[in-house]
Amino acid sequence: MNAPPSSPPSGTSAPSASANRPRSLADLFISFTLLALQGFGGVLAIVQREIVDRKRWLTQEEFIEDWAVAQIMPGPNVVNLSLMIGGRHFGVAGALAALAGLLTVPLILVIGLAVLHDRFADNPVVAGALHGMAAVCAGLIGAAGLRLASALKKSPMPLSWCLAIAAAGFILVAFLKCPLPWVLFGLGGLGCVLTYRRLAT
């Protein structure tokens, strides 16, 4: 007789439906450390590539759902996501390992760079380099947004509704300067209601 499938530890959510998962706490720590060291200014593109494309810890749809939850929670998005992924597979220990990997080495580097920046901030070469990096980060974020948008085809809502909500969010934040929490809860709540009604019919 086959043994029944094991269930996830109490207090954690079910593992991802994707094929792979972190092998150990050390794997979580190292993976999030390497991820953090690549996230210069625009971490969304790096997170999506590492977690979905390379590690395959999440499917594209799972990543969008988890990122949406991380977005509306207090605190930095990627920190919230690391806690969710680590906790899903290894409970509290996994959440702490992912968080430590995400913050430890970058914190040391940031402190060192802050000291150097204070010394060379007025150097025009340094200022120009920082402006150039900002342009690259903007391109990375835009590319990641376009890739994530491909998952809208599987949304219960019609694509036209999804695009309308996305356009409204862009206008409210970019042009009308509305506070981000208002936009998230307002349009996010609208999306939840429309999706629920769509599934209920």
From TrEMBL:
It is found in: Cell membrane. Its main location: membrane. InterPro entries: CHR_Transporter (IPR052518), Chromate_transpt (IPR003370). Keywords: Cell membrane, Membrane, Transmembrane, Transmembrane helix. The chain crosses the membrane at residues 28-47, 90-116, 128-146, 158-176, 182-199. One of its GO terms (cellular component) is plasma membrane. The keyword Repeat does not apply. One of its GO terms (molecular function) is chromate transmembrane transporter activity. It holds the Pfam family Chromate_transp. It is a multi-pass membrane protein. Belongs to the chromate ion transporter (CHR) (TC 2.A.51) family. This is Chromate transporter. It comes from Massilia cellulosiltytica. The lineage of its organism: Bacteria, Pseudomonadati, Pseudomonadota, Betaproteobacteria, Burkholderiales.
